[in-house]
Write a structure and sequence with these properties.
By secondary structure, the protein is mainly alpha-helical. It is built from 10 helices and 4 strands. About 75% of the residues lie in helices and about 5% in strands. Strands 1-2 form a two-stranded antiparallel ribbon. A two-stranded antiparallel sheet has the order 3-4.
């Protein structure tokens, strides 16, 4: 019972902080830069516990946070593309440094170093890509909090719907080898709840003169993409933890585990949302 109360309080505070931070771009950038850093630090600490693995935890974390901030500056229009050069130089350093460290298996170090950037830093930076888009004739970026926030709303609705539906009707395992508790019934129920939420968002945020049916279909499509790839992200992190032989990735969030435990779905859903949203603009 105490664990349930702790989990509930942490969950409410977590949702409130995420929602409030999106109301101002400065708060969003600060919070997700912090989240990126904490998640990278946690990830590097976990992989460093593996035999013959020793990634540079400090530099990987700083590099990932810098990449997030560079992406924010670039998408806003404050910095030129050259802002990414220090990040690229840092990656080169992390490769070359293995020549001098005499690690027993440098390939593992290279692999986990790049995985930290591809799995964590890059996906979190997609928040900026969704939030800022050139929309004025002079190319100035306009902040749109609803689009990135909706990704998290859909993930939360999916988790709630999947839990309730799975508890009531879950019979067929979705991926028993990796996550024995997930069911097809729960996943379908979660998807339905998320798409229902998408309809509400579409109706509330529909621009004047826009076709209601088209707007609803676009947002429902986004919800479906987020649900599918969010579920895959959850399974990927479950496989990661199962490989390491751990239950939680950390204990920074009481009742919810670590940062990877809390953002596993978002790490796959955010890039997928960017691909979906920008693919629509090409049609």
């Amino acid at each position: 019972m105490n664990n349930f109360i702790t989990r509930a309080i942490t969950g409410v505070l977590f949702v409130a902080i995420i929602v409030v931070c999106f109301l101002r771009p400065q708060a969003m950038i600060f919070l997700f830069a912090l989240i990126t850093g904490l998640t990278l630090w946690e990830f590097c600490g976990l992989v460093n516990e593996r035999e013959q693995v020793s990634v540079n935890r400090f530099i990987c974390t700083i590099a990932g946070v810098y990449f997030f901030l560079a992406m924010a500056g670039y998408t806003i229009g404050l910095t030129p593309v050259a802002v990414f050069i220090p990040y690229l130089l840092t990656l080169i350093y992390l490769f070359v440094s293995e020549l001098y460290l005499k690690a027993p298996d440098p390939i593992h170090n290279w692999a986990y170093t790049m995985l930290s950037q591809m799995y964590i830093a890059l996906p979190f930076s997609m928040v900026c890509v969704l939030a800022f888009a050139p929309a004025t004739p002079d190319g100035a970026a306009v902040y749109n909090y609803l689009l990135p926030l909706s990704v998290f709303i859909f993930l939360w609705l999916n988790d709630t719907g999947a839990y309730c539906t799975g508890m009531l009707w879950g019979r067929h395992r979705l991926f028993e080898r990796i996550s024995p508790k997930k069911s097809w019934e729960g996943s379908i129920g979660g998807g339905i709840v998320a798409m229902a939420g998408a309809v509400v968002i579409a109706l509330l945020g529909k621009p004047d003169g826009a076709d209601t049916l088209t707007t609803c279909l676009v947002w429902m499509g986004l919800a479906l993409v987020v649900v599918v790839f969010g579920t895959l992200g959850d399974l990927v992190e479950s496989l990661f933890k199962r490989t390491l032989g751990i239950k939680d990735s950390g204990n920074i969030l009481p009742g919810h585990g670590g940062m990877l435990d809390r953002f596993d779905s978002a790490l796959m859903a955010l890039p997928a949302a960017v691909v979906y949203w920008y693919s629509l603009s090409l049609l």
